[in-house]
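Title: Prediction job returns without error message
Component: structure pipeline
Severity: low
Priority: P3
Assignee: unassigned

Description:
Job completed but the reporter wants confirmation the result is attached to the right record. Sequence as submitted:
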Amino acid sequence: MHALAQGSPHLQIEALQEELETARASANTWEQLARDEEERANLLTAQVSQLPELEAQVEQLTIALRASRPPAGDELVDDDPWSTLPDLVTGDSDSAEDLFLHLTDATSGHIVFTTQAASIWKKSSYPFPDEMTECLTKLAHAAATLYDGTDRNLPHLDNWFRENFDLKVALQDDTIERNAKLRYFDYEGKTYDRTPHVKVRDHTAPTQVGRIHFALDSDKSRLIVAHVGVKLY
């Protein structure tokens, strides 16, 4: 307004026009800001109105999630019995019984174990339980396959064990076959021959020569394991 007081009418008009333009620009700016704030307020109002619906959806999803979870303490069961095996512990008959029962169930009874097998394991103190578990598992797989109902011509059963299951199986043993006490055992009211055996580990100290002795029971489609431990003699 200083120009209005001191300038000519022409200069006063120009000054007024400049002030008018500045005022208009400022007014436009404030008008745009007002519109922006109004749009933001409308958006917030719309979001607030949707809160009850969103809360209801969250509650429904929470209920569905809880319903899909197993009850507390329950665990998902793996359908594959071979994926997780009980740990076999040296000198522990309970761990042996757990593993034996698991393998019997996994093969639908195509491999079974005598009660003496667990006590023999305990007394043997065989120092390589993982190695023994591996061989027992392979033997269980072999039993399930051998007695799956398929007609097989197996003139050399020991070769079949080796080629298909990587098991070193001996079907004869002169020392055992000459000693009835070593050779025979009773199970479920019948006498069986436990000469067949898996050589778990060989050519080492006597306490480390691992053996699994079993009988072939073709009448009941199963292997009967009677000895899990070290060499019989």
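Comment from assignee: result matches the submitted record. Helices lie at 2-6, 9-68, 93-106, 115-124, 129-146, 157-165, 174-177, 180-183.
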